[in-house]
TrEMBL record:
<keyword id="KW-0378">Hydrolase</keyword>
<dbReference type="Pfam" id="PF05970">
    <property type="entry name" value="PIF1"/>
</dbReference>
<keyword id="KW-0233">DNA recombination</keyword>
<dbReference type="InterPro" id="IPR010285">
    <property type="entry name" value="DNA_helicase_pif1-like_DEAD"/>
</dbReference>
<feature type="domain" description="DNA helicase Pif1-like DEAD-box helicase">
    <location>
        <begin position="2"/>
        <end position="114"/>
    </location>
</feature>
<keyword id="KW-0234">DNA repair</keyword>
<dbReference type="GO" id="GO:0016887">
    <property type="term" value="F:ATP hydrolysis activity"/>
</dbReference>
<dbReference type="InterPro" id="IPR027417">
    <property type="entry name" value="P-loop_NTPase"/>
</dbReference>
<keyword id="KW-0347">Helicase</keyword>
<protein>
    <recommendedName>
        <fullName>ATP-dependent DNA helicase</fullName>
        <ecNumber>5.6.2.3</ecNumber>
    </recommendedName>
</protein>
<comment type="similarity">
    <text>Belongs to the helicase family.</text>
</comment>
<dbReference type="GO" id="GO:0043139">
    <property type="term" value="F:5'-3' DNA helicase activity"/>
</dbReference>
<dbReference type="GO" id="GO:0006281">
    <property type="term" value="P:DNA repair"/>
</dbReference>
<keyword id="KW-0547">Nucleotide-binding</keyword>
<dbReference type="GO" id="GO:0005524">
    <property type="term" value="F:ATP binding"/>
</dbReference>
<dbReference type="GO" id="GO:0006310">
    <property type="term" value="P:DNA recombination"/>
</dbReference>
<keyword id="KW-0227">DNA damage</keyword>
Length: 217
């Protein structure tokens, strides 16, 4: 399949460590048997560097910058194109003010204190002692079956940069649903391939919790 691929779109690319990009580039050259960058395939990196960058566990600000894609020797191969229109706000959305605020944060236009921190509007904050359960009740006030419940869940979400926090929120949400919970296991068997079974035992697959993957409940 990869040998027939002509275009690869990598969404949220700024969250990726540059070494991961370089590893993919080497793999594509090997798989496609082509010494051109990325094996001659066209790679589109989509994302906004003003948002979350690559996470370096226990790292410093300098480590984060060093891990950024712009520090890769592959970066000069890319052409940069800027998107200027927010299609979600085309119809005069009531969230235009919040969108403008986010742009100010991303562009570094808000005043900083001596530690380089910015103050957030009080209306978007919750007290420090807010529990996970209180947050859930604020975002999802209705767990009992009703005509409006499904639409409420479709329109709202709780986001976190940490998989651990997502797991805690998911568990707390599930505990609030009426009825008995059931666990459905994913398929984790290996095809009849001795090499693959040795390199990727089911126990390893079940323990994988990559920081760059989006975990949803």
């Amino acid at each position: 399949m990869l040998r027939d691929t002509r275009l690869i779109v990598w969404d949220e690319a700024p969250m990726t460590h540059r070494k991961d990009l370089e590893m993919v580039e080497r793999s594509l050259r090997d798989l496609l048997r082509n010494d051109r960058p990325f094996g001659g395939a066209l790679l589109v990196l989509a994302g906004d560097f003003r948002q979350l960058l690559a996470v370096v566990p226990g790292g410093t600000h300098a480590n984060t910058i060093e891990a950024c894609l712009t520090g890769s020797e592959l970066w000069p191969h890319f052409r940069r194109h800027h998107l200027t229109k927010n299609l979600r706000l085309e119809s005069g959305s009531a969230f235009q003010g919040y969108a403008d605020f986010l742009m100010q944060v991303g562009n570094g236009e808000l005043p900083e204190d001596e530690e380089g921190m910015v103050s957030l509007p009080s209306e978007i904050l919750m007290p420090d002692d807010t529990t996970t359960e209180q947050l859930i009740q604020h975002v999802y006030p209705l767990f009992e079956p009703s005509p409006d419940r499904d639409q409420m869940f479709a329109e709202r979400s709780i986001l976190s940069p940490l998989n651990k926090t997502v797991d805690e929120a998911n568990a707390a949400c599930l505990a609030l649903f009426p009825g008995e919970s059931r666990v459905y296991l994913s398929v984790d068997s290996i095809p009849n391939d001795d090499t693959a079974a040795t390199n990727f035992p089911p126990e390893l697959l079940n323990r994988l919790d990559p920081t760059a993957c989006h975990i949803t409940g």
